[in-house]
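Tokens help. One example:
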Amino acid sequence: MKLIECPRDAMQGLHTFIPTEQKVAYLNQLLKVGFDTIDFGSFVSPKAIPQLRDTAEVLTKLNLSTTSSKLLAIVANVRGAENACKFEAIHYLGFPLSISETFQQRNTNKSISEALNVVSEIQELCEEHNKQQVVYISMGFGNPYNDPYDVGIVEQFSDILATLGVKIISLADTIGVSEPQQIEYLFKSLIKKFPAAEFGAHLHSNPKTSIEKIEAAFNSGCQRFDGALKGFGGCPMAKDELVGNMATETIISFLDSKKVDLKLDREEFGKAMMMADGVFS
């Protein structure tokens, strides 16, 4: 079971800039917990996401000597991927690929066709620099734009990604509309059809429906969950203002109930929980 902590997703929408040293302190605390991966920053235009304009500087100040956690950085184009590849400490490059044409244009200023070309180029860079690409299928459970959607489209995109050599595919419920039956069908179907790929769940949710969504993914074979402490962050396009990132502590509580050994340092996790309020206040 892989648990991915996503402070980048929690931070990126904040209007008040979090000082670099505060980011570093928080990330260094998260690195002590034992998460499989930390989604720590992004190499995108500072005009697009000013909150993360200091990602390269933050990276140079992280204490990576004693952690088992791997680092993931989000990129939106080939140039960003090239910049990320310069850093040996980064293991994963994450790319947001939407099955909604409208959202792909708004999020990366590219058509879906252009975005798939970028995925292909990033995959080549990853293979050249000994890194792995994580592709997020955003709007993977529906979209608010009336763009075409059904589970068959998700399967088609997964097939394309598998053909391109992408080994990690994360289904993203960008606006928190997924239902347990839909989650169960997609994970069971995709895991069976593409056994060489690792499918993850990046679910945004109202806290009241979090457990049923986590349970549906877990029971369907999902072995990779994204979360953010206390559910900070999320998508401003969600109709419900309570929809945010899946709270990491909720995921952990569920997996604990299933006797899954996450090998986390619970004392350091508690310290990170206390720090989160100060970072995101």
